[in-house]
Specification:
Elements (H helix, E strand, L loop, with lengths): L1 H30 L4 H4 E9 L2 E7 L7 E6 L6 H14 L20 E5 L3 E6 L6 H4 L2 E8 L4 E9 L3 E4 L2 E14 L6 E14 L3 E16 L5
Antiparallel strand pairs: 1-2, 1-11, 2-3, 4-5, 5-6, 6-7, 7-9, 8-9, 9-10, 10-11
């Protein structure tokens, strides 16, 4: 009986800590404005293959997205048409819940790496539609103690891997950074970096890097 009591005493603090982390995680999730693409207009600057495009997103407009500039100049009609097609394939911002921080991780796998006066740094197992791919990746998330908000999420590979026959991924990284958007402390995406290097069937090389910065958020209210 005494041994059992001692074990319970030793385990109890760990259980309390785990519960506290769960509370912290849920508070941070709640601070993310999951409906930001229904209520906010914003500017997106995207760099793909050394081409910089700036677009404006507004949930009140019919197309939602409008291309402003390409490498600092006025876009051509073809570039505008291609841009709209690409954005339409992305879903024009609808159904963003699947891309929320909560949907990117397995909460049960959360583990504390580091704690300072200003933040908690956790690691986690990523979640996604292609779970076999996700098994080769590691996740990190920093939560600011001020406001209990997510500062960034990293999902990356630590070594090359073969997620399916004939494909070897040499490098993979997705990094999302977040920023407060109003006095209530809600956060929205501030930037995104996507990087992948891979080889398919020993012949086709994939080397992609996409950098995106979001700015000039404007509250416009819920769209229809």
């Amino acid at each position: 009986m005494r041994i059992n009591c001692c074990l319970l005493f030793l385990c109890f603090p760990a259980l309390c800590i785990a519960d506290n982390y769960t509370d912290i995680l849920q508070q941070a999730f709640a601070r993310f404005d999951d409906s930001y693409r229904e209520e906010w207009a914003f500017t997106e600057e995207r760099i793909v293959r050394e081409v910089t495009s700036r677009g404006r997103y507004d949930p009140r407009s019919e197309d939602r997205w409008s291309l402003l500039t390409v490498d600092g100049r006025t876009p051509t009609e073809k570039e505008i048409s291609t841009y709209r097609e690409d954005k339409s394939k992305e879903g024009n911002g609808r159904g963003v819940g699947k891309n929320s921080p909560e949907a990117m991780m397995n909460p049960e796998s959360l583990s504390l790496i580091e704690e300072t006066e200003n933040y908690w740094l956790f690691d986690f197992l990523p979640a996604g539609e292609d779970q076999k791919f996700m098994e080769y990746l590691n996740g990190e998330m920093m939560i600011n103690k001020s406001g209990t908000t997510i500062q960034f999420i990293n999902i990356r590979s630590t070594d090359s891997f073969k997620p399916r026959f004939g494909v070897r991924v040499k490098e993979f990284l997705t990094r999302l950074e977040f920023t407060p958007v109003n006095e209530a402390g809600l956060v929205v995406p501030q930037s995104m970096l996507f990087r992948i290097k891979a080889k398919a069937f020993g012949m086709m090389d994939v080397d992609e890097r996409v950098s995106v910065v979001y700015s000039d958020y404007q509250f416009v209210g819920a769209s229809d």
